């Protein structure tokens, strides 16, 4: 029987604490108007100081399991895409596995920054296709509030905290394919334009690296913007090509929620009607690997995305990494 990975459940979690652009005006030299017009962001959520990535991943993962109607025991692989893990190791995925009572699974984190959700889906898909596992829990979880450099006003106003999960299961009897296409790619040559330099083996945490804020997020916004527009467009076209589909066959597009100007540019290139674009970065800012999953889950729970809809997801992030997926949500 043909193995058929399908997204059978979604879940997400954002912290309650809302931080508006006006709140940020009190912390850095910025304005609500600048942030809105340059990025489309109005507010974001920040965790309290006692929380970590796994604390956000637990409710998101639990919601995805409940939505899928699957017991934790049935999960045989846990993948956590994150750029802000609890710690270097053990993985946040191992903490999540333990805390959700997933008794017999492999677990690991993946590092693909904002493209992590698409990379995670791609891994889940291929592990199921290969016959290695039956049910995978992918939960992207990010706490960028921990790594924002408040002396870099161009970058610190863009990010927020949140987590989002999906359960991907083998459904050979499903009448449709769970995935029409997947595409992931990277360009390590440009890895230095979006980075968290210190804290690893290259630049260990020392009083000097901390003093220079090297343990905080650093981004060349303009350079990232230029490449993001190009690569998100080409990823979407590649995914459509691989599925032998036209843009008119897609019901919804979810781009990585980084900047409304980037999303608008991708939309125009695909000649996609505005109504098909799912956008929520006004409320949450850029939640990196979690952004696509939060938008997917929210749109499903609002009844916007329905069973049987074809959804194209397009991502871009540090690495540089990028990719796209076209999925069918099960009926
Ligand atoms: O998830 C990872 C993917 N990341 C992204 O997709 C980010 C991509 N990049 C961007 O979204 C945009 O480049 C930014 C939103 C980061 C910046 O927008 P921009 O239009 O490229 O602004 P800029 O860096 O060219 O700065 C324009 C002006 C400068 O002033 P002058 O030199 O023109 O007088 C900055 O000093 O805006 C000033 N500025 C600010 N003003 C108020 C920079 N940051 C701020 C700020 N508030 N927070």
Overview of the molecule:
The protein is of the alpha/beta class. It has two domains: 5-170, Thiolase/Chalcone synthase (Peroxisomal Thiolase, Chain A, domain 1, 3-Layer(aba) Sandwich); 179-328, 3-Layer(aba) Sandwich (Peroxisomal Thiolase, Chain A, domain 1), CATH 3.40.47. It contains eleven helices and 13 strands. The chain has helices at 21-25, 32-39, 53-68, 92-99, 116-129, 153-156, 207-211, 221-243, 260-270, 281-284, 291-301; strands at residues 5-13, 18-20, 43-45, 77-81, 106-110, 135-143, 161-170, 179-186, 194-195, 218-219, 252-255, 310-317, 321-328. The strands form four sheets. Strands 1-7-6-4-5 form a five-stranded mixed β-sheet, with helices on both faces. The protein has a four-stranded mixed β-sheet with strand order 8-13-12-11, with helices on both faces. A hairpin with a 3-residue loop joins strand 12 and strand 13. The radius of gyration is 19 Å and the shape is globular. The mean pLDDT is 96. Bound molecules: oxa(dethia)-CoA. The site of oxa(dethia)-CoA has 21 residues, from helix 2, helix 6 and helix 8.
